[in-house]
C-alpha cells in the first residue's frame, strides 16, 4: 500500500492534470476570437495573455523552460519566467497557440499546448530546427531510426505492423527542405500527408490509431519537439530527434543550455522529456487531433481538449461547455 504522502502526491498529480486543461482552454478561447481574421499576431498575443493569467491559479512553483522566447523578446511566458500559485517545483513547456497561421486563416490543426515535468526533466531546447521521427505504441523498440534511410524505416514499420507499405502514411511539414524525404517515401510505395504548420499535433497524431498517420518525420522547431515528446511519453510511442544548427552561435547556445552534453547528439524520448510528465492540448480549429472551438449564442462556447499523464498512460478527451456571462474573464 502507498504511504499517505504518496497518496497525496498521486491525487495532487491527477488534479493538476485537470488544472492544465483549464489553462489550455483559456488560451484556446481567447485565440479563437481571432480565427479567420488574418491577424496571427493578435491571435497569438491573446493566447499568451490568457494562458499566463490562467497559470496564476495553478498550484505549482513553475519555471518556463520552453516558451515564447527570451525575456527581452517576450513580455509573458518567456524562458525563465516563474508562474503558478505555489506548490511542487515544475518545469513548464508551452505553446500558447501552435499554428498561428492556421488560426489566422481558419485552417485545421491550430491548438494550445502545455506540458509539465518535475524540475530538470525537459530538454532546454533553443529556438532552432530539430530533426524528428515519431511512431506510435505497440511496436518493437527501435523499429525506426533517425539515422536510417526513410525507405528502410518505412519497410521496417510496415513489417512490424504486418501491413503493406502502401498502407503506411507518413506526415511531414510541406517544406522545400523535405523534397527528398517526400520523394523517397513515395518511391518506397507509402503515402505522404503534408501539413502547412503544426507539427506538435502531427507528431501526436502518429500515436493515435484514429488519425490515419503512421509515422511523422522531418525537421521542425526544437521547442515543438519537446512538447511532442511530452505527449508521446504519455502515449507510449517512440521518438528520436537531433538538434540542427545553422551557425556556431546556435550550437554554442545549445551547449550552454545543456552543459556537459554534445549539442548534436541523437536524442531519445527520455532525453527530451523524462520523469513523470503531464500534457494538455485544446483545439482552436478542428483537425486530426481535436475539434476546434464551437461558439454558441448567446455568449457560450464548446471546447475539446486532450489531457494525458505519463504515470498512468491514460488519455482523456474532455468536452467543455463555457458560459462567458459567468466567467471572471472574457475571451473577447
From TrEMBL:
Keywords: Carbohydrate metabolism, Hydrolase, Manganese, Metal-binding. InterPro entries: FBPase_class-2/SBPase. This is Fructose-1,6-bisphosphatase. The gene is glpX. NCBIfam families: glpX. GO terms for cellular component: cytosol. Mn(2+) 2 binds at residues 95, 98, 224. It catalyses: beta-D-fructose 1,6-bisphosphate + H2O = beta-D-fructose 6-phosphate + phosphate.
Amino acid at each position: 500500500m502507498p504511504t499517505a504522502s504518496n497518496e497525496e502526491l498521486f491525487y495532487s498529480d491527477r488534479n493538476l492534470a485537470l488544472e492544465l486543461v483549464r489553462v489550455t482552454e483559456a488560451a484556446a478561447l481567447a485565440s479563437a476570437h481571432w480565427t479567420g481574421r488574418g491577424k496571427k499576431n493578435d491571435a497569438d498575443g491573446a493566447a499568451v495573455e490568457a494562458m499566463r493569467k490562467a497559470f496564476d491559479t495553478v498550484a505549482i512553483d513553475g519555471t518556463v523552460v520552453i516558451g515564447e522566447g527570451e525575456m527581452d523578446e517576450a513580455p509573458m511566458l518567456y524562458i525563465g519566467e516563474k508562474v503558478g500559485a505555489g506548490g511542487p517545483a515544475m518545469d513548464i513547456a508551452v505553446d500558447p497557440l501552435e499554428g498561428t497561421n492556421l488560426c489566422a486563416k481558419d485552417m485545421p490543426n491550430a491548438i494550445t499546448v502545455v506540458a509539465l515535468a518535475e524540475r530538470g526533466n525537459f530538454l532546454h531546447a533553443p529556438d532552432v530546427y530539430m530533426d524528428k521521427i515519431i511512431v506510435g505504441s505497440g511496436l518493437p523498440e527501435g523499429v525506426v531510426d533517425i539515422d536510417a534511410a526513410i525507405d528502410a524505416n518505412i519497410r521496417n514499420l510496415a513489417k512490424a505492423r504486418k501491413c503493406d507499405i502502401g498502407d503506411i502514411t507518413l506526415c511531414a511539414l510541406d517544406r522545400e527542405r523535405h523534397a527528398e524525404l517526400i520523394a523517397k517515401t513515395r518511391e518506397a510505395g507509402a503515402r505522404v500527408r503534408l501539413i502547412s504548420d503544426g507539427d506538435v499535433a502531427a507528431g501526436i497524431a502518429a500515436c493515435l490509431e484514429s488519425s490515419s498517420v503512421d509515422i511523422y518525420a522531418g525537421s521542425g522547431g526544437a521547442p515543438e519537439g519537446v512538447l511532442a515528446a511530452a505527449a508521446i511519453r504519455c502515449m507510449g510511442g517512440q521518438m528520436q530527434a537531433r538538434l540542427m544548427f545553422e551557425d556556431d552561435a546556435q550550437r554554442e547556445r545549445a551547449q550552454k543550455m545543456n552543459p556537459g552534453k554534445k549539442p548534436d547528439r541523437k536524442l531519445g524520448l527520455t532525453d527530451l522529456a523524462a520523469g513523470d510528465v503531464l500534457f494538455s492540448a485544446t483545439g482552436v480549429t478542428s483537425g486530426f487531433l481535436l475539434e476546434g472551438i464551437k461558439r454558441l449564442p448567446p455568449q457560450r462556447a464548446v471546447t475539446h481538449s486532450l489531457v494525458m499523464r505519463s504515470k498512468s498512460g491514460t488519455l482523456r478527451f474532455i468536452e467543455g461547455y463555457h458560459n462567458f456571462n459567468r466567467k471572471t474573464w472574457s475571451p473577447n
